[in-house]
Amino acid sequence: MKENKKHFETEAIRTQSETTQFSEHSVPLYLTSGFVFDDAEEMRASFAEEKQRDLYSRYSNPNVNEFVDKVCLMEGAEAGFAFASGMAAVFSTFATLLNAGDHVVSCSSVFGATHGLFTKYFPKWNIECSYFNINEVEDIESLIKPNTKFIYAETPTNPGVDVLDLEALSIICKKHNLLLVIDNCFATPYLQNPIKFGADLVIHSATKLMDGQGRVLGGVTVGKKELIREIYLFSRLTGPSMSPFNAWVLSKSLETLAIRVDKHCENALKLATYLESHPKVKWVKYPFLKSHPKYDIAKKQMRLGGNIVAFEVEGGIEAGRTFLDAIKMCSLSANLGDTRTIVTHPASTTHAKVEPEVKAAAGISDGMVRVSVGLEHVDDIIKDLKQALD
Ligand SMILES: *Cc1c(COP(=O)(O)O)cnc(C)c1O
């Protein structure tokens, strides 16, 4: 099998659904809710899973299968299931793995909606969550209980761009017989493959760099076959599946993931390096800057540093707000991983109502700005941020 394995870019382009009788070059869009059977026996065998085929698009669909196959190849995963959004992937994965009375250990800096699941909905199902601080990974073991099911983390984190050591997390999980579930959205499968470092399941919001152009929502969970089988059974019953249209768009996007992400990372490193030299910037965080506290770990587990840069403007909340208002070209938006550079100031916008301790735990300081570096010419991105800082 090894010699059949192609390079990342080639797999992304050459993994395709079977050609139809029309000999099309580009994969068609299979907008169909159902599929037909030759006779009662074929239908019986298909529903009994004696025959592998598409039955109904809540279960599977050729476009969705192609998208999932690509992500599996990219992540080195055995199987996967695609969802309508990243949060559908996160929720369905949790709902499949957890029973009432279970316990989860999670990094405190996780995506806002994921944190909302832990705090608003887990209690009603009697599921408990304990948090470890990004800088106190040595605390994790003291949080583990007899009913702990998995450790959950994102790396690099949002919005603080901190880096967690995947191998170290995996060693703890193996020792305590826990699953390791990683949201790999910020890195994309091109930059980082958590399964290589011991993760059991990897989740992506495909809405971000996978789409890369701010058009469609999507999510995917990949990993161990037997776990994905459970996630599939839960999902085909509950209906969070990805639409064929979004899968078609996303599978096309994956063809250019490597070349796009290379350029995103090149621009982000240039911007981060520039910001480090600006007198109004207190600090800059970017995984591939030597000044990043986890630079060595980032180098070990990531191909490049990603497209998110965080920095602190001198002057706290007011300065952050003034900076945001002075931005001319870049977009103020909650999305990230777009061709367009997006700037946010969490303390005065998305996290304005969040308690100070929660903000601190999530790695958000008063003057912190998060930039999702896009694909405009880097000189124009730098120029816009420079004039806003000045
Ligand atoms: C955006 C995001 C999600 C949620 O994805 P949606 O597609 O918006 O539902 C989950 N995790 C991370 C890290 C994200 O950035």
From TrEMBL:
It holds the Pfam family Cys_Met_Meta_PP. One of its GO terms (molecular function) is pyridoxal phosphate binding. Gene3D superfamilies: Aspartate Aminotransferase, domain 1, Type I PLP-dependent aspartate aminotransferase-like (Major domain). One of its GO terms (biological process) is transsulfuration. InterPro entries: Cys/Met-Metab_PyrdxlP-dep_enz, O-succ-hSer_sulfhydrylase, PyrdxlP-dep_Trfase, PyrdxlP-dep_Trfase_major, PyrdxlP-dep_Trfase_small. Its cofactor is pyridoxal 5'-phosphate. Keywords: Amino-acid biosynthesis, Methionine biosynthesis, Pyridoxal phosphate, Transferase. GO terms for cellular component: cytoplasm. It catalyses: O-succinyl-L-homoserine + hydrogen sulfide = L-homocysteine + succinate. Pathway: Amino-acid biosynthesis; L-methionine biosynthesis via de novo pathway; L-homocysteine from O-succinyl-L-homoserine: step 1/1. Its EC number is 2.5.1.-. CDD domains: CGS_like. The modification N6-(pyridoxal phosphate)lysine is found at K208. Catalyzes the formation of L-homocysteine from O-succinyl-L-homoserine (OSHS) and hydrogen sulfide. Belongs to the trans-sulfuration enzymes family. MetZ subfamily. HAMAP family: MetZ. Homotetramer. This is O-succinylhomoserine sulfhydrylase. It comes from Algibacter luteus. The gene is metZ.
